[in-house]
Fold:
Amino acid sequence: MQDVDLIVIGSGQGGNPLARDFAAAGKRVVMFERGRVGGTCVNVGCTPSKAFLASAHAAGRARRAHSLGIAANVTADVRAVMQRVRAVRDEWHAGVERKLADNHVDLVRAAAAFSGVRTVTGGGREVRAPLVVIDTGASAAIPAIEGLAGTPYVTNETWFDQALLPQRLVVIGGGYIGLELGQGAQRLGSAVTIVHNGPRLMPAEEPDAAEVIRASFVRDGVDVVLGAKTTRVAHDGRTFSVTLDGARTLEADGLLVATGRTPNTVGLGLEHTGAATEPNGKVRVDDYLQTACPGVYAIGDVAGQPAFTHVSWEDYRRLTSTFAGTPRRRDDRVLSYSTFTEPQLARTGLTEQQARDKGYAADTRTLQLTDVARGAEWNLDEGFYRLVVDRTSGKMLGATLVGYEAGEIVPTLGFAIELGATWRDLDAFVGIHPTFGEGLPSLARLFGNSA
Structure:
């Protein structure tokens, strides 16, 4: 048995900097990692997917340039694209390895499990600490579809290991991962069909926002099949046959399963330390990310936090503050996020319905991108900007932005909401003409015009 100051299980974007901080301060830190250090983001998420989409969207924009009078014959060197993606991924992974070593974090490359209260075993080591942080993330959820098991389907965890992309690709799932990779594959030359069992893509988003994304996909040539459940999958050694309810069958050379994520808690032995999981498998924590066992915390998506890297990073900052004696709640900051489809769908704060559910007298205005000069000038007018305010105080509560690089613009509103700004404050702001950001004060002005 070895006694240390901190144990971290998993090396994601929250536990990783926490371990380095403790070690840099002279504390004894042991980190357990069963896979590649860096977690989902570095290895199978943000880093490789955005490197992949950099190539895909460059190709897509070039093809769409015909509306600007530019004729482009675009050919994608997919092998070179995938090689670059892996090179970027490996560079970031190496950076994580280097930082852990430079800060003298004791890294145990093995699966870990609790063997007692605040006691963890793995890789032939048994370690005890007053503080234990679970940062094990989540993995691709595989649905119970007849015939799927045993076929060479891919998930986001194996997608980037492909040397080439399939000529015909079926994507099962209409969420963020399936949409980003599906559109990317289409723009790089695959013929893509996205199958989703719901009536619209991205069911957590507002219907008209999701519809902008669907229409753009169709414009790219993606076949979007909604309201269809996949009932059977077969593979004959070369070709997939994907059967939908209603007896329609799709033939494809590749199959991407993107039907959600499941928390990595199986085998953790949480019961040995007094912690527990929710019915969906996530670690049960309180408002301060602590489990039922004092001193044992869970962060990121394994704790049911929104599955974004910046949330895991903020969880690290929350724990740092809590351990320093100034506790922070798990939901004490405005949440902002974006898809990296094209156009992007970006959100911050509350939707109108979420605001009403919280008791606000919510009011909403929407500005179409056709009314933003930059959108017309660049022929990038797909989408809209929407702002939600509290009618009583005028404070901004949330926003949905759908459009070109909307994810670069939405943090401005998130920051304003965090500061308690009103729509009048935004109206008074002088935007730069002609930029997409200029649309934000124009959007706020709609509240005054209708007063």
About this structure: The chain has a mean pLDDT of 97. The CA atoms of residues 29 and 410 lie 37 Å apart. The longest strand covers residues 396-403.
